[in-house]
């Protein structure tokens, strides 16, 4: 492509370090779409003839089928996807191919191709997240009143419902979804026509190409257009945050599915056995989701580090942007899909959850609250009295509700039989009806809110 200036070809290592075709061939559709839009605009503005444009468009469509049908030979000598396609176009249509690159550089070409790809990936992520959220909403509806222990420090804290726990994840993945939408909104600008860095002297119509490629508008500054990779970094950032959420969930699934917890049973389709221990059912899918987070975080740090310190505008360093994004996208798509499957399929072990919910003195706060409400104690005094009740129950190795009225009155004489109504886990859960609380009716409100919101978005 630059034979005019060069007397000899590149060294073998140069070719090896320079070529990106092995990974950027993934951009072939976006590259062809970009070229079709560019050439159509060149013809409309009279920069190239309609006749040449027709040849170019036909040639590009032929190349598209060749690639799709596996009949295209990619060459490392031709460096990247842009030059592979352009060289093939020249073979197919002759000199007219040389007119396609008028008023364009690979710098704006790769920027537009990559933006198109990232935008499509964001749309895929949006759909995947919606499916995951829907899976959670369905489980939450089934289990709005299923009691389980709520934890802080992974120590039993207060009873909650499984539906409430599911809806906590809906909030998390809902924020991920809104980050996806924000990212799309911000990146929805076309860099095509920024040319190498300074714009072009040809009378191009950037609004036209932006529109035909489905972007809201063209980017406003040509230097920024070819040197900006924020859209890729935003994808990696939101992917990292989402992966962090998935990983927390994966960790809970791993814990919940142990025989010691026994809160859930994973379906056979999302677990594996052991080649030596016949009793085993391992939560491999959850473990791998947890691990994918490491790759995705690594991809974010890798690209941030590539970009830091790069002077404006384009530098070849930026060619290293693609593998990180492709890798993270593949990992994220898989992780969300696997999680959606696991959540939909898992069997919830209500009895085990309920039993665990009642252990660990989980209703101690309810006892303290009762003393405040019914006996007029200041909360700190009620806390102290309840602490004594827990200590007594502990020495007797029983639950709070198994202490006798006499024993409880020994701690505070104001206690009456009515206390036993609040010491059950169901009563505890029912009482927490503050906005956003774990009471089944509140959980059902959250579910209704999300169903409506999912319909709108
Ligand atoms: N393969 C290159 C990349 O991915 C395309 C842009 C090359 N531009 C250049 N001036 N060498 O970044």
UniProtKB/TrEMBL annotation:
GO function term, MF aspect, one: argininosuccinate lyase activity
EC nos: 4.3.2.1
Pathway(s) this gene product operates in, as recorded in its UniProt entry: Amino-acid biosynthesis; L-arginine biosynthesis; L-arginine from L-ornithine and carbamoyl phosphate: step 3/3
GO cellular component: cytosol
Broadest EC class assigned to this enzyme: lyase
Gene3D superfamilies noted in UniProt: Fumarase/aspartase (C-terminal domain), Fumarase/aspartase (Central domain), Fumarase/aspartase (N-terminal domain)
Record's subcellular location: Cytoplasm
Start and end residues of each Argininosuccinate lyase C-terminal domain: 361-429
Residue span(s) of domain Fumarate lyase N-terminal: 7-298
InterPro entries: Arg_succ_lyase_C, Argininosuccinate_lyase, Fumarase/histidase_N, Fumarate_lyase_CS, Fumarate_lyase_fam, Fumarate_lyase_N, L-Aspartase-like
Top-level taxonomic group: Bacteria
Pfam families referenced in this protein's UniProt entry, alphabetically: ASL_C2 (PF14698), Lyase_1 (PF00206)
GO annotation terms (biological process): L-arginine biosynthetic process via ornithine
Family: Belongs to the lyase 1 family. Argininosuccinate lyase subfamily.
Protein known as: Argininosuccinate lyase
Source organism: Limoniibacter endophyticus
